[in-house]
Amino acid sequence: MTRDSPTVLCADPDDASRAATVDALASAGLAVMEAASIRALESTLDDAVDCVVTAFEFDDGDGFDAVDAVRAANPDCVCVLFTDRDPSDLPRGAPEQVVEYVPKPDDGSRDRLTEVVATAAAETTQAAYPLPEAEAERLAAVRQYDVASLSAAETFDRLTALMASHFDIDVAFVGLVDEHEERFLACEGANWRTLAREDSICTHTILTDETVVVEDVREDPRFAAVDALEELDIRSYAGARITDDAGNALGAVCCTDGEPRRYSRAELDDLRRFADEVEEQLRLRRQLGGAPR
Amino acid sequence: MTARQDDRYAFDGLPLGPVDPGTSVIVTGPVLDGARELGLRLLRCDDGDCGVVIIAADSGAATTAEDFERYGGTFDRNRVGVVDCAQDGREPPADCVSAVGTPADLTGIGIEYSGHYERLYAAGYERVRTGILTVTPLLVYSEDVRPVYRFLNTVTGRIDTAGGVGACVVDPKAHDEQVVESLVQCFDGRIHVRSGDEGLELRVDGLPDQPTDWTAVDPAA
Predict the structure, then answer these.
(1) Which residue in A164, A205, A288, B156 is deepest, having the highest Cβ count within 10 Å?
(2) Cα distances (angstroms) measured from residue A173 to each of A75, A159, A192, A256
């Protein structure tokens, strides 16, 4: 996924080392922020940061603490350990953190770091979920659908209310899958606003043109360990992908319930029809000129 | 992804066309009946200008090195690195092997993998072939599949940006079908492997100029 100017946060307690890294990354055309401690990193992090380059030793923690802070604030952010310590000399981090590693050479060169960071920061290379093909084009398409400006919210509210009644389920929603999270445009039966992409079943639904059914979340190895689904009382799920005219997956129209549930063929056909209606509404409203340019 | 013809990676002895630098494939099939063999044969580099990094998850480094050579590879310690997360008790074949205590430690495996990649790169091997043999222990030992997605995205991301080539082996019958299908999404293409009456066969999805019908594979030379 290519963006114009990735933003990199450089965390290093050594002023001279940090300055050298910042200079090298900035010279490569990257937007660079800096932090001298884990605490400073935590307060500097925001959604705009695409990549964090971190030293290993800090006064208030280590590189894995830095990665923990990054993942808590921005789960998809690329993390790169840049240290003169050999991999075998590093203590073990949490098994699931998964980071890039670039050794700091004796000559102080940042050339290799810059190569790795410049390319990794431009893509979602540490996402904890499978990515669709042509993700950059898909995200560009999603950005065209600012539903507030399309005045579609009331329509989708009515549609999801009808779905909840029709399927006799706890929650029905329309969600758009953005770069880092799913954004709920309408949600009948709950007050959900967003859900991290790595926690969302719709992350998988947008990969296929087939309707996705999870009869029991606890029995599906893709989702059984996702605490957020338990917290939202999502035990069963059915979702149909919505796309634009070019075939880009925008999001999904979905049913969830607090109990395991099966869906008949007729019900899945109905769900597809609801999704078709959402697609049609989005398309028509864009044609009427409501979408931002 | 485009590349000059002479930049592409070739697969000697296999009925596959060359692929562009940056390509990662998942090899699916019975591990002990063809998929593991094919994964190792994809790492062969007969002209000696490639580095090789193997993440050995289901067999120790010594066994993996023997298998690599059995299928035509050259275990040259100067241009091969192994991340051994199986540790079957046998003496590692060389100091180009690094150990990670358990296949569950995806962070440790990833750092050791990058360390080997960087060592080879610093030694002048800018073309590196990566093998994950196999992903099954990583899935089995991880309580949550999401870190495995992150691990695979990180490895394939490095292969892509460094212009390498990668092969990850999985036995689809060892896992939930939906999990396998979602793993496939992390790769550029898929090589299906089966053992038929005539021996090993393969077919390819998702990559241009490759056999899409079942095609016989000659035994390793």
Answers:
(1) A205
(2) 24, 9, 9, 9
Sheet architecture: strand order including B189-196 = B97-99, B80-84, B51-56, B128-133, B165-170, B23-28, B189-196, B199-205, B215-216
| CATH no. of B21-214 | 3.40.50.300
Nearest residue in chain B measured CA to CA from A197? B146
B183 touches chain A (CB under 8 A): yes
Q: CA B183 to CA A71: how far, in whole Å?
A: 22
Task: Express each pLDDT in B58-106 by its tens digit.
Answer: 999 999 999 999 999 999 989 999 999 987 878 777 779 999 989 999 9
Cβ neighbours for A206, distance < 8 A, ≥ 6 positions apart = A132, A138, A177, A241, A249, A250, A251, A252
Burial (CB < 10 A; 0-12, 13-18, 19+), residue B195, is middle
Chain CA centroid to CA A33, Å? 22
* Residue among A88, A97, A116 whose CB faces B107 most closely: A97
Question: Which residue from A minimizes the CA distance to B176?
Answer: A221
Question: Given CB atoms, is A131 within the 8 Å cutoff of chain B?
Answer: yes
Q: Please answer yes or no on whether A225 and B185 come within 8 Å at the CB atom.
A: no
- In this complex, the residue of B106, B111, B182 whose CB is nearest that of residue A96 is B106
In this predicted complex, what is the ipTM? 0.92
Domain covering A135-287 in this structure, CATH number? 3.30.450.40
State the architecture of A7-120 in CATH terms: 3-Layer(aba) Sandwich (3.40)
Dump pLDDT digits (tens) for B114-157. Answer: 999 999 999 999 999 999 999 999 999 998 999 999 999 999 99
| A91: contact with B, CB 8 A cutoff | no
Nearest to A95 among B105, B153, B182 (CB): B105
Domain spans of chain A, in order of start? 7-120, 135-287
Residue B24 identity: S
Report the alpha-carbon distance of residue B8 to residue A285 in Å, rounded: 46
Q: Is the pLDDT of residue A52 over 80?
A: yes
Hey, of A100, A106, A197, A220, which one would you mutate to test binding to chain B, going by the most B CBs within 10 A of its CB? A100
The Cα-based distances of B95 to B60, B73, B85, B119 in angstroms read 14, 18, 15, 13
Q: DSSP label at A191?
A: -
Q: What is the pLDDT of residue A108?
A: 80
